[in-house]
Amino acid sequence: xxxxxxxxxxxxxxxxxxxxYEAYAVGGCVRDSLLGKEPKDWDITTSxxxxxxxxxxxxxxxxGIQHGTVTVMxxxxxxxxTTYRMDGEYEDHRHPKEVIFTPDLREDLKxxxxxxxxxxxxxxxxxxxxxxxxxxxxKKVIRCVGNPVDRFDEDALRMLRGxxxxxxxxxxxxxxxxxAMKIKAPTLVNVSAERIRTELSRLLISAxxxxxxxxxxxxxxxxxxPEFEKMLETKQNNPHHIYDVGRHSMEAVIWISKLFDQxxxxxxxxxxxxxxxxxxxxxxALLHDVGKPACQTVDAEGIHHFHRHPLVGKDMATxxxxxxxxxxxxxxxxxxxxxxxxxxxxxxxxxxxxxxxxKKAMRRLIHxxxxxxxxxxxLLQEADLMAQSDYCRQEKLAxxxxxxxxxxxxxxxxxxxxxxxLALGGKDxxxxxxxxxxxxxxxxxxLLDRVxxxxxxxxxxxxxxxxxxxx
Length: 471
Description:
The chain is of the alpha+beta class. The chain has helices at residues 7-18, 28-34, 50-56, 105-110, 133-139, 148-154, 157-169, 175-184, 193-204, 212-218, 226-233, 245-263, 274-287, 292-295, 309-323, 328-340, 359-369, 374-386, 393-412, 426-431, 438-453, 460-470; strands at residues 23-26, 43-46, 60-64, 69-74, 77-83, 85-87, 99-101, 119-122, 126-129, 141-142, 172-173, 297-298, 304-305, 349-350, 353-354.
């Protein structure tokens, strides 16, 4: 089979071969090409030693030369070229004590994690597949190279990587590989939170985020998200739900991805890259009800209630995201919208139609979480509704659409929602004799409270009159 490879990759392969070395494209780029996908990165493996690679190319970077990796720069693009190697003994379930260079491509492929990632390609030789990776691609199976217990004992992160690949590709995890995950799950404690976060995030925004249930089945989940197990154990015996808290939340993750594809234009003003937006939304959906297990009560009729769970969930989600070493912007966004996800915009939809009376509550909501968070909140609320039972669903969605309309009208009219929107600010108060400090802050907050109730009051003369009466 002939694969299409970039001109720069072919150039590197040819230069190495001209010098008498073997060279192949290897790993994920071969896998993705066989699946008909465009690879994001092209990695190259070669029999040439790192210093020999450096001698052949004008610009190189010593990316990981001690492990055999040199980055070859062609224009502004870099391509990692790594010497065939065997890994020495692993002492921390993550890193080998030493790397041993080898002239044998098979030995290099044998050390890799999964069969679908252990294939190499060269235009002259074709595909080198020593471990039935092509067959596993056809079967849609994730299977370790060799003994899966050994592979996971070498690098515990491979367990989460296997589940992540299952999510991204829609594959199943082969039985022996799955059993090995159960055996080696405790070794995940050796993996950094940052590495776990990366794999979990990729899984949650993948085609099959529900593959997270494999982490539950294997026991891996207890080492990075034990709260989810409690969510799965928490039933929701009320008309609004058909799933336990955990499965409802997973359905919300699935829905939020679908809805983002339909509502992408609503995030046009967000400066974040799309992957970061999707990641924040996915975690918000996964954790929006994380506070429910701690808030569950049962009434005399046996109906379950979860009063105050959004606020409890906000604090829990903040702790979880900090534990996973997320950036402050993502933590702030996710926690803010979780705190408000149960706001149902009742006053925006009265007697079966939109009501502008709801704009007063909407201004206060926008003030609490910020205008930039509103698209995130609305999408979370829609995903939450779609993951519930169909009880009153159309009415709930109508209220949500009315809330979105009220928000749009408030923002388009530039109605005041923050202190910075006031027609009378701090400099004006100083001119009126108010000293900077706590008193000024209290006055500005009282003015904002008034204009949130009635934006028509947001005029300098009116606000000055209010200040005069306050002093």
